[in-house]
Design goal:
By secondary structure, the protein is of the alpha/beta class. It contains 12 helices and 13 strands. Strand 5, helix 8 and strand 6 form a beta-alpha-beta unit. The structure holds pyridoxal-5'-phosphate (PLP). Belongs to the group II decarboxylase family.
Length: 466
């Protein structure tokens, strides 16, 4: 959530509204728009309020053309109906809504099975508002386990991870006062290196995070190799460091498309896994999942029981109240697609990603960093000879055709590298992919004629005002 300030520019003179927006009589109806930065003095008809809000929202982007986000932008109408039916259900009222609670439990069981928990009945887990909350919970469990095995006063806990981690891990370290120990990128390695990670560990390391599906380029981190490096570390030093897998995206891709890839609870060192139900779990935002392999991985004292809603259901969450509709929609989607359905959907998405990546590569102006064959995501940069424009120009110009393709610089030690990233999601059809490649191809002659890259200069110039 953006941290908002008050009005930059207070409401000045009242603006008029379309007389049609008033009541039946356009003259007696509302003629002046309500204030925007303080509560209006009086109520207005629901039709007017609806029209005002609706019209303003027309200026939001078209979510299906947003190739920046991983979050689901299309669900079937039936899912929408179910979610509307569950609008009033509060996830925390597990006693009032026992069936919703039961669907949540079943989703956890299905994920424990999908992620190969050795004993699915021993696995514990919960729904969250997204992967960020799930990562906070998993990180807290790691921290608490560390403080129990290492009760030295004054010791400062640390968490080892690649510099490519999603911002939620920076938040976790900041909010919970854990030192982040980051493995930098090096050369053509854009994510964590197992050996380098093991070398950063010491007796105050609460865990190592492996990312299944790096946000920066869509690549899978080598979780099995990471576990092996930590096994070797344990043999050498006795340090037994648990691994958390951040499978925000890949947790719902790899089980269907990369069955031979061992990254989950099959690895004894993997203590916990999270995923975003609202990414490749294929549900509208906000639902995520956090699972622990067994009760030992989740210290009991972090779990709360409240009895003031009736019942006595254990919960592990940051929020108290939370909508139940997304959890219901997750269960619906699990039921609706099954393994075969998920496989088909994710395979189509991966096919689309690979096909666009290949065609972008064939344009000769670009160099691919990834090809969409892990997450259905690929990152690319301009080829060595391209000097008249840069990735920021491409991003800006693609917006003219409605496409949102983010351009950004990489973190240390590859700050020299700027890339564009395309995230393919269910609903980004082969048809839309063709249009995307056409639009990009059409831009190139103009971009090549530029005397030099434009966008960055302009950004720098705007930055100067601050
Ligand atoms: C998106 C993402 C997150 C954060 O997930 P939300 O569901 O948006 O809170 C965390 N880690 C990774 C790797 C991600 O891709």
């Amino acid at each position: 959530m953006a941290l908002h300030k008050g009005p930059q520019k207070p409401d000045e003179r009242p603006m008029s509204v379309n007389p049609f927006f008033g009541e039946a009589d356009p003259v007696a109806g509302m003629t002046e728009a309500p204030p925007r930065h303080r509560l209006p003095d009086a109520p207005m008809p629901s039709t007017t309020a609806y029209q005002l809000v609706h019209d303003e929202l027309m200026l939001d982007g078209n979510s299906r053309l947003n190739l920046a986000t991983f979050v689901t932008t299309w669900m079937e109408p039936q899912a929408g109906v179910l979610m509307a039916e569950c609008r009033d259900k509060n996830m925390i009222d597990k006693d009032e809504y026992p069936r919703t609670a039961e669907l949540e439990r079943r989703c956890v069981a299905m994920l424990a099975d999908l992620w190969n928990a050795p004993d699915p009945s021993a696995a514990v887990g919960c729904s969250t508002t997204g992967s960020s909350e799930a990562c906070m919970l998993a990180g807290m469990a790691l921290k608490r386990r560390w403080s129990k095995r290492n009760p030295k006063p004054g010791a400062r806990p640390n968490l080892v991870m690649g510099i490519n981690v999603q911002v939620c891990w920076d938040k976790f370290c900041n909010f919970w006062e854990v030192e982040p120990r980051l493995v930098p990128m090096e050369g053509d390695r854009f994510h964590l290196d197992p050996q380098a990670a093991a070398e950063l560990c010491d007796e105050n390391t609460i865990g190592v995070v492996g990312i299944l599906g790096s946000t920066f380029d869509g690549s899978y981190e080598p979780v099995a190799d990471l576990c092996a490096a930590l096994d070797a570390l344990q043999e050498r030093t006795g340090l037994d460091i648990p691994v958390h897998v951040d499978g925000a995206s890949g947790g719902m891709i790899a089980p269907f498309l990369d069955e031979d890839l061992v990254w989950d609870f099959r690895l004894p060192r993997v203590a916990s896994i999270n995923t975003s139900g609202h990414k490749y779990g294929l549900v509208y935002p906000g639902v995520g999942w956090a699972l622990w392999r067994d009760k030992e991985a989740l210290p009991e004292e972090l779990v709360f029981r409240v009895n003031y809603l009736g019942g006595d259901m254990p919960t592990f969450a940051l929020n108290f109240s939370r909508p139940g509709a997304q959890v219901v929609a997750q269960y619906y989607t699990f039921l609706r697609l099954g393994r075969e359905g998920y496989r088909a959907v994710q395979q189509t998405t991966r096919d689309v990603a690979r096909s666009i990546a290949e065609r972008v590569e064939a344009l000769d102006d670009f160099r691919l960093l990834t090809r969409g064959d892990e997450l259905p995501v690929f990152a690319f940069t301009t080829a060595p000879g391209v000097e008249s424009y840069d990735v920021f120009d491409v991003s800006r110009r693609m917006r003219e055709s409605g496409w949102l393709v983010p351009a950004y610089t990489f973190p240390p030690n590859r700050e020299d590298l700027s890339v564009l990233r395309v995230v393919c999601r269910n609903g980004f059809s082969a048809d839309l992919a063709d249009l995307f490649v056409e639009d990009l191809t059409r831009l190139l002659p103009e971009l090549r004629r530029q005397p030099h890259p434009w966008t960055r200069d302009r950004t720098a110039a705007t930055g100067f005002h601050h």
